[in-house]
C-alpha cells in the first residue's frame, strides 16, 4: 500500500490532491471504542453530565452524515450520529466516571473490548 505524507502547513494546497488520494488515506479496519451517544442511556448518565450540542456540533455532524462512505460502509456510525442529533446532547468520556472513579478502566473499557462493542 502506498501512503502519502502531507505537511500541515501545505494542507490548503493539497486538499484537491487529497480528494484523489482518499482511498489511500482511509483506514477501513479502524474500530471506534470510544463513547457512543447511545451509551448515555445505557450507562444511565444523569442529565447534568450531558452537554447541549452547539450549532457547530450540529453543522459538523450533518456534514459527516452526507459523506458517501458513511452511507455505504458504516451504518452503525450513521445510527449513532443521527441519535446524537435527535437528542441534541453530547457528553465527554469522563462523564462516565460519575458512577465511580475507576468506572472507565474497570467496567466501561473492558466491557466494550470483551463484548466486541465497537464500530
From TrEMBL:
Domain Topoisomerase 6 subunit A/Spo11 TOPRIM: 16-113
The species this protein was found in: Malus domestica (Apple)
Key word Kinase present: no
Pfam families with a match to the protein in the record: TOP6A-Spo11_Toprim (PF21180)
Keywords per UniProt: Nucleus
Matches recorded under InterPro entries: Meiotic_Spo11 (IPR013048), Spo11/TopoVI_A (IPR002815), Spo11/TopoVI_A_sf (IPR036078), TOPRIM_Topo6A/Spo11 (IPR034136)
Name of the protein this chain belongs to: Topoisomerase 6 subunit A/Spo11 TOPRIM domain-containing protein
Places the protein is found: Nucleus
GO CC annotations on file: nuclear chromosome
Gene Ontology molecular function: any one: DNA binding
Principal place of residence: nucleus
A GO biological process held by the record: meiotic DNA double-strand break formation
Amino acid at each position: 500500500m502506498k501512503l502519502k505524507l502531507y505537511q500541515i502547513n501545505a494542507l490548503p494546497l493539497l486538499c484537491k490532491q487529497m480528494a484523489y488520494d482518499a482511498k489511500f488515506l482511509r483506514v477501513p479496519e479502524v474500530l471506534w471504542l470510544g463513547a457512543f451517544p447511545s451509551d448515555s442511556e445505557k450507562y444511565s448518565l444523569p442529565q447534568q453530565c450531558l452537554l447541549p450540542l452547539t450549532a457547530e456540533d450540529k453543522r459538523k455532524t450533518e456534514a459527516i452524515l452526507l459523506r458517501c462512505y458513511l452511507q455505504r460502509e458504516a451504518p452503525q456510525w450513521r445510527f449513532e450520529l443521527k441519535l446524537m442529533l435527535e437528542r441534541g446532547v453530547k457528553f465527554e468520556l469522563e462523564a462516565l466516571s460519575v458512577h465511580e472513579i475507576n468506572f472507565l478502566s474497570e467496567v466501561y473499557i473492558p466491557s466494550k473490548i470483551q463484548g466486541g462493542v465497537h464500530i
